[in-house]
Write a structure and sequence with these properties.
It contains 12 helices and 20 strands. It is an alpha+beta fold. It has 2 domains: 2-58 and 77-164 and 257-342 and 362-389, FAD/NAD(P)-binding domain, CATH 3.50.50.60; 168-211 and 213-253.
Amino acid sequence: MMLGLLLARAGVEVLVLEKHGDFLRDFRGDTIHPSTLELMYELGMLDEFLKLPHQEVRELVAQYGSEKFTVADLTHLPTQCKFIALMPQWDFLNFIAAKARRYPSFQLRMESEVTDLIQEGERVTGVRADTREGPLEVGADLVAGTDGRHSTVRQKAGLKVVDLGAPMDVLWMRLSRHPDDPAQTLGRFDAGRIFITIDRGDHWQCAYVIKKGSFAEIQRNGLPALQDDLRRLAPFLGERVKEVAGWDDVKLLTVAADRLKQWYRPGLLCIGDAAHAMSPIGGVGINLAIQDAVATANILAGPLARRAVTIDDLHRVQDRREWPTRMTQRVQGFVQDRVIGSLLSNHERPASPLLLKLLNGWPLLRRIPGRLAGMGFRPEHVTPTVQATGK
């Protein structure tokens, strides 16, 4: 959606195909990081954007056993917004879609699921889709695959995937929030368990991190055992844990971390999770995808306007975005292997990691993870050409 908006601002004809009838998908990454908020500022949309309901997080706090640690400080970032905005992703998408529709070169078709690619020799020249009106074929100078970690586009294109592995899965659930509840935390870490609570105003969006492939065992142990675990990890919830009244109230996210060796073919480019599925650590996946979209628009708006996109242009996008992707996945892999994996395999409460103690004792050090979480390794900026075209 962001790529469509930026290209439409530059006068490029864009069609976005969305397979669902609306954006009301629950349990998505709902963190809008300072790097994305800075883009809203550059596009002149920030004030209006922040009028949407959201919560603001300026510090990330972790609870390890009974101890609390401040692990990241975002209040010193060189950005307009020195916080993470928590906002349901459907509100974000609806906002971007409304802005994009102001441009005559932008089209959005809902209930249109891409099922295959149209190819002429080695070149991708369009897509086939199923719509509510029947089959659809669309020709295009460029097909941008932005359809997530289970991407149909990348599968049909035959692009090779490098699986990086992940030691955990996540169970998402919703519990009511009371005004006197404690502030949210980055996570509660205990022996064999990790529990994350995200403030959604009237409720907590909760992530219960489990060992990879262990959901069937948790189900065999029964719902009361899960409720007891939640109560031990977050005692303030009390009897609210019974709001998880059945397994239909629990959504399994099978965590995957991977990336494509090559993000493109002639006539086709994958970005976001379609190019690099991210671990949920740090909630950076959506923001990394948006950075991809900005880099893609900056590099390709001119060639697309001339209808002259070359394979070298597509390579420039991957070359620009591959390094921050690899670095982010490297940091996520370190946390997965050294913290999460060992914790989920340990049935006795381990000692608090030295890193957490250092961050707690030296406030200046908290700015480093704050910078990484808030801005990433290579934050992108909208080029003056794309900015000016939309004014």
